[in-house]
User: Which sequence fits this backbone?
DNA sequence: CATGAATGAGTATTCATTCAT
DNA sequence: AATGAATGAATACTCATTCAT
């Protein structure tokens, strides 16, 4: 009973530290994110930071995991509302891209993480997120294209997911942009749709 | 007259330093590349390095520029030999992807640069390379699809180029790979072809 | 009346903390012994630790004092049983060395303390132990060598006690040992005996 | 030819750093000796320190090695002057102890190193010094006691060397001293002599 | 009194850059 | 021009001690 508040404070501290990690990462970039900065941003001492996380990696890992939880949760909720079963592929794709683009723009953190995927302390969470989208896509297609099963489906989805994500990241990283946003979104949608168009 | 040899030595030194940068970058990765390593690999002193380049960034920038020169040159030559005008899009795409994949695997440098594109000192050279491919693609399509002009061509090419490059980089960065190579290449080719398939 | 239990608890706490100090010191060595480890080993909080001891030094000091109490007590009891008055010097020396060696091997704590005598918070307790052995030795010799009083007795004992203790500590600290154990024990015994042999 | 001054400077820097290590170690003790202190004492930056020594351990190791070189050299020279072949054991022992005691008093460094022998980064140098004295003692005894070969000679020397060194260290560490210096020296000499006295 | 979360000065080590020779 | 020794700010992490609850 006495332990509740303690655990709560603990959870709050962990939360605050992960928040701070996100903030500092978004503001200064992975390269210039130091444990002292994170502690300062969280309003605590470095010592406290190390009471909750064994090292810097663990902080980033926790952030990744939380982010993935949030993304999948948001995605699931959005999907439920969108009722994608009744939605054409192009509409679905456009929605997803628009939402994703807005999210990336709203939070520089995601952009920074995508850009630095290969330097992240653990590859697990990222692969996990990829898997999640792969599975989600697979379910959608199994239902929608029951009549015309798609050849090589997992690989196609793998390509499309990575294509979309990294192309958006690249697009957002260009200042001034090399293309008009509308054109890029259109092209992405067309690419996705084209990849599943029935061909003889 | 006395200046010739000086300029020649100068050019040789610059060349050697850029070579060394490439070597060290490929061997140790951007994160673990130090100016001292580069100077050592070039067989000169750090002091000399700083005589020719104002800082570390400038070295990487020079490397990027040279690489882009080389890539475009190689590409131009290869295109001339392939005579792509007589090649179907799928064949062309498969060739390009296969060659690109082999090149990335053969030289870790390119993979490292692609992965770190957002940390590269200048965006100019990279954008330039993108432009080059964009233009090359545009020419090909203008010739091939004269009858069925493609809507939104630049953006489509932009998407496809980035998709291909970053998806390959992501694929090569996964160990163990999440997909079989053959499947990924097939899916990439299909995606490219699909993006230009005539649809009503 | 209320004070009794408080004092009792207090004594128990102090005891537990000193026990914990001994355990941790033996397990991790003086260098890697932290107050948090000690508190944890004692099953109390660091805060409590600091309620009973002003700082880390005080803990070690208390441990030293207790250890000295124990050692002298044990020694007194053993002496009583051995009846050393009827024992030749070489037999006595060999017994003492054998027992001491076994004790040092059995409990890494003592070895650790001997090795770090100069870093121990207070010299008092250690000097006290030395004094104790000095006095014990003096009594023995006064009785045994009544006929041939030994010149310079205290200093001789001082030298022999320190010689024996530190040589054993040094011997146990060498891995692989530089000498065979049997040879070292023999030499120590001979040294002790030789130091009191009648010479003209 | 150009390399001479460079190598000379290098040697001087190494020397200065080892000197500084000795100074700081003597002044602050092993525990409070930091690389920054050493660099400061040497009048250089930490960076320079790390250009000449891979880590802190290497510095202490170098110091140990130099010290052992100095000690053995001094000992050899002194022995040559003393002509120990014509010296009685007690005279020799008294000389050695007096000289050793003076040296330890003159330079707190040696005292600090002896006290911390078990924490020194490498045991090699110390064992080496021990071996040196062992061998030196052996040679002396083989010559002097040709008629009455000593039983168990190496172990006896081992015991006497460690006894003398650590007893002196202990004696010097006590303030106020527990015994008069003269008495301790006498007792040490007697102990050494007694250990080789012919007994039946 | 007990708790243990919080503190923050302190430690070894790295590396881009400078500058005396 | 060339050298490479020297610099020192920066970084991740530890641990004795304090203090709000």
Assistant:
């Amino acid at each position: 009973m006495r332990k509740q508040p303690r655990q709560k404070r603990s959870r709050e501290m962990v939360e605050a530290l992960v928040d701070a990690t996100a903030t500092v990462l978004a503001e200064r970039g992975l390269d210039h994110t130091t444990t002292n900065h994170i502690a300062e941003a969280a309003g605590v001492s470095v010592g406290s930071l190390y009471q909750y996380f064994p090292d810097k990696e663990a902080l980033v890992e926790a952030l990744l995991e939380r982010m993935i939880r949030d993304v999948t949760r948001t995605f699931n909720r959005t999907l439920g509302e969108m009722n994608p079963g009744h939605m054409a592929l192009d509409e679905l794709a456009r929605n997803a891209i628009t939402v994703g683009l807005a999210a990336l723009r709203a939070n520089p953190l995601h952009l920074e993480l995508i850009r630095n995927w290969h330097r992240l302390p653990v590859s697990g969470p990222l692969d996990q997120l990829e898997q999640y989208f792969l599975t989600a896509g697979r379910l959608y297609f199994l239902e929608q294209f029951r009549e015309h099963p798609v050849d090589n489906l997992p690989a196609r989805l793998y390509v499309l997911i990575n294509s979309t994500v990294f192309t958006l990241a690249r697009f957002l990283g260009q200042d001034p942009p090399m293309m008009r946003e509308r054109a890029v979104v259109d092209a992405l949608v067309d690419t996705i749709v084209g990849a599943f168009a029935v061909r003889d």
Residues 5, 34-36, 46-47, 50, 55-56 of chain D lie near DNA strand E (CB under 10 Å from a C1'). Chain D has nine helices and no strands. Chain D has a mean pLDDT of 89. Chain D has two domains: 1-53, 61-196.
